[in-house]
């Protein structure tokens, strides 16, 4: 009899995700992805003042802490035709890119690395050899034998006391771990350093947005005024600190994140042919250099790549009702239009329809609803969104830096271009795009300083702040590239209040369940065909799911009650 493997919850992600894998011997024949928590921010927003929406929407998630704020103010600005000042655009770009750098480094070391790095094996490392390895890879300052000996001692104490703490519950010793002990020790050391590093780099958000997580936003611009020589608002000392933060980001990315990615990947080249997914890639695009809703000015272009064909980029219209639609045939929602209905977000409905099974249960009934995520589709097709989609879009549209980075990675690893479409490609894309955005950050920073020096201090456009200036009915789309991919908020405003609000977020695209036609979502498609060395320790599932960097709070716009904390693996 075919067995169904259940992994619930998947750990080292945001939120609660359950994967069920229909096994054929040791191979995954079919996989099912289920978001298991629910709240309902879209419903909470109805009837509120559109100018307040960002503050509620931002609470969708505490990981991608600012993206829902940005998407929300952009949606309102699009609906009311508000253009924001140049300085506000630059500051938003800086804040968005800072989020990427922070989020991607944390994801690599704290959420994904331990799928590839065996912490316990690091105890066998020779600190001197580790220092030699680290020094051969980069000029990261902490690369001495004494430093690695200290990290090893710290780790040894954890293990001997049975208190692995943040390293508890790994599949240490699993046969799929391939790194030599020295590479494991180096990666563990950088894991710990990244924890410290991220504490500093969030200052950029605090300076521009008042705090982190959840920095403040403002419809029409940014909330903190620029006042170069005063104590209130953003002064020159604050801006100097922003520059120091960017340098700190550059140093860690160049000296640790990029070399570590390449070094670790070189032991896992086989993962360049595993975890391909749906092969369709969507970007909404971001980083305007002109008006915020003029996609032609975006540094990351908008578009779709189909069937891995990088020679053609298809156009995407976010307002066209036949393009982006959400289906709920395998989700715990219902539409007034009945089964098979796909709704554009302007017409979106969020009505719960939980059809069970009630917990505790052994397995989901995948013929019915089985997730709190909807199934978004573009022209009926499942789309992968995120770092890989963006890198492919930059590559396909001829971005020179992207091409240089991708070509360098392929030749360093000695893998074919097809290796991009994989678990390894997804993880490498995250690292490579971080390099590109850091370069852009430096440019935006310089532009901002030049504007200020030229006397342009404007950060807010208040022309349409007063609701009496608004039309009775308006609708708009706010979109961006969040760290995990294309994010859109759609708002309908009637009589100065929110009549409908829908968010379609990256993890919904990637982790959503099957649609009306039974077509699998990207997670589900990517897992198909995985061979598990040991089904009781499904490390291979974690590798591919983590390569997408799941965030289920975003995906269902929810915060759930705390479920079980331990990971449960069941073969039934
Ligand atoms: Ni909660 Fe998010 C990002 C958004 S993912 S992390 O990035 O939007 O669905
Ligand atoms: Mg939604």
Overall description:
This enzyme recycles the H(2) produced by nitrogenase to increase the production of ATP and to protect nitrogenase against inhibition or damage by O(2) under carbon- or phosphate-limited conditions. The termini are close together. 38% of the residues lie in helices and 13% in strands. The chain has helices at residues 41-45, 53-57, 67-80, 86-112, 127-137, 145-160, 181-201, 203-209, 236-265, 387-396, 400-413, 423-453, 506-511, 522-527, 539-547, 552-556; strands spanning 3-8, 17-24, 27-35, 281-283, 286-288, 298-300, 303-305, 324-327, 342-343, 375-378, 473-482, 485-494, 497-504, 568-571. Helix 5 packs across helix 7 (181-201). The model is unreliable at 558-568 (pLDDT under 50). The strands form 5 sheets. A 4-stranded antiparallel β-sheet has the order 3-2-1-14. A 3-stranded antiparallel β-sheet has the order 9-8-10. With 572 residues, it is of the alpha+beta class. Strand 12 and strand 13 form a beta hairpin. It is globular, with a radius of gyration of 23 Å. The protein is built from 16 helices and 14 strands. Bound molecules: NI-FE active center and magnesium ion. The site of magnesium ion has 5 residues, from strand 13.
């Amino acid at each position: 009899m075919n067995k169904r493997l259940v992994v619930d919850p998947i750990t080292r992600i945001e939120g609660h995700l359950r994967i069920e894998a229909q096994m054929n011997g040791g191979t995954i024949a079919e996989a099912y992805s289920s978001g298991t928590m629910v709240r309902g921010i879209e419903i909470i927003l109805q009837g509120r003042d559109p100018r307040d929406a960002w503050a509620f929407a931002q609470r969708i998630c505490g990981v991608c802490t600012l993206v829902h704020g940005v998407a929300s103010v952009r949606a309102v600005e699009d609906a009311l035709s508000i253009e924001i000042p140049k300085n506000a655009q630059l500051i938003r770009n800086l804040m968005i890119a800072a989020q990427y750098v922070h989020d991607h480094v944390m994801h690599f070391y704290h959420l994904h690395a331990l799928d590839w790095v065996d912490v316990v094996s690091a105890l066998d490392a020779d600190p001197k050899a580790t220092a030699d390895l680290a020094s051969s890879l980069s000029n990261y300052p902490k690369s001495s034998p004494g430093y690695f000996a200290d990290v090893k001692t710290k780790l040894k104490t954890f293990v001997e006391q049975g208190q692995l703490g943040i390293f508890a519950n790994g599949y240490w010793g699993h046969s799929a771990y391939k790194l030599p002990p020295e590479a494991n020790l180096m990666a563990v050391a950088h894991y710990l350093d990244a924890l410290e590093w991220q504490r500093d780099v969030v200052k950029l958000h605090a300076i521009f947005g008042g705090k982190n997580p959840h920095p403040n936003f403002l419809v029409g611009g940014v909330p903190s005024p620029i006042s170069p020589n005063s104590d209130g608002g953003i002064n020159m000392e604050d801006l100097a600190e922003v520059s120091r933060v960017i340098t700190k980001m550059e140093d860690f990315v160049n000296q640790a994140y990029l070399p570590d990615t390449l070094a670790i990947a070189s032991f896992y080249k086989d993962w360049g042919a595993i975890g391909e997914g749906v092969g369709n890639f969507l970007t909404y695009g971001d980083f305007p250099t002109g008006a915020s809703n003029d996609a032609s000015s975006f540094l990351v272009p908008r578009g779709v790549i189909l069937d891995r064909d990088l020679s053609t980029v298809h156009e995407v219209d976010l307002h066209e009702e036949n393009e982006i639609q959400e289906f709920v045939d395998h989700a715990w929602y219902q539409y007034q239009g009945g089964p098979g209905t796909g709704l554009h977000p302007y017409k979106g409905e969020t009505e719960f329809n939980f059809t069970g099974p009630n917990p505790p249960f052994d397995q989901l009934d995948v013929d019915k609803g089985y997730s709190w995520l909807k199934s978004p589709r573009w022209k009926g097709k499942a789309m992968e969104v995120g770092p890989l989609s963006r890198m492919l879009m930059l590559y396909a549209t001829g971005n020179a830096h992207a091409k240089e980075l991708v070509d360098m990675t392929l030749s360093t690893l000695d893998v074919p271009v097809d290796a991009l479409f994989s678990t390894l490609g997804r993880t490498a894309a995250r690292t490579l795009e971080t390099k590109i955005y850091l370069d852009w950050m430096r440019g935006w920073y310089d532009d901002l300083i030049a504007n200020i020096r030229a006397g342009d201090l404007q950060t807010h456009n208040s022309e349409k702040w007063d609701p009496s200036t608004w039309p009775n009915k308006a609708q708009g789309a706010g979109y961006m590239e969040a760290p995990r991919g294309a994010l859109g908020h759609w708002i309908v405003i009637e009589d100065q209040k929110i009549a409908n609000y829908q968010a379609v977020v990256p993890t919904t695209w990637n982790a959503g369940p099957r649609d009306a036609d039974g077509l699998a979502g990207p997670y589900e498609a990517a897992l198909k065909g995985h061979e598990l060395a040991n089904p009781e320790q499904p490390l291979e599932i974690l590798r591919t799911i983590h390569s997408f960097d799941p965030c289920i709070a975003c995906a269902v716009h929810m915060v759930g009650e705390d479920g079980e904390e331990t990971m449960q693996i069941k073969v039934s």
